Structure to design on (148 residues):
């Protein structure tokens, strides 16, 4: 359990998406922008860093500027509700977003913005992901939420 202590702590929300996992998704979606990254773990050519606060940006404009390009989002998990709310809103304006989230199907944000939403596809991920340079898998299951 010692290696997983950081995953349960509030020390950091900066856990990078596993590169091979992202690469497989990028082959399919051809992401044009990373909506929540640090300078060290940005997955796309361009992205909003922590300092640029993605929650205060207009995501749909990026999607429109890239001819409807797909946006990638692996948000800080302490702010899932805020980021899922924002993804839902930006999707109503035309943004197409793939979101990596913990599979927390018991939360209000899941039922409000994701579950039974006809513009959303949910893909549960088999097994547990290893984020960043962690040696251990995450202590929670993950899911992809596709706002299309």
């Amino acid at each position: 359990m010692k290696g997983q202590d950081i995953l349960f702590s509030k020390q950091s929300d900066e856990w990078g998406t596993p590169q091979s996992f992202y690469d497989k998704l990028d082959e399919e979606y051809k992401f044009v922008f990373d909506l929540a990254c640090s300078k060290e773990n940005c997955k796309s050519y361009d992205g909003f860093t922590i300092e640029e606060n993605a929650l205060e940006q207009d995501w749909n404009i990026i999607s429109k500027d890239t001819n409807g390009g797909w946006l990638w989002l692996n948000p800080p998990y302490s702010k899932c509700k805020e980021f899922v709310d924002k993804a839902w809103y930006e999707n109503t304006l035309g943004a197409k977003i793939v979101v990596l989230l913990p599979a927390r199907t018991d939360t209000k944000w899941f039922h409000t913005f994701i579950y039974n939403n006809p513009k959303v596809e949910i893909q549960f991920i088999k097994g547990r992901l290893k984020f960043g340079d962690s040696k251990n898998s995450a202590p929670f299951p993950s899911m992809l939420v596709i706002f299309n």
About this structure: The chain has a mean pLDDT of 83. The chain has one domain: 14-147. The chain has five helices and six strands.
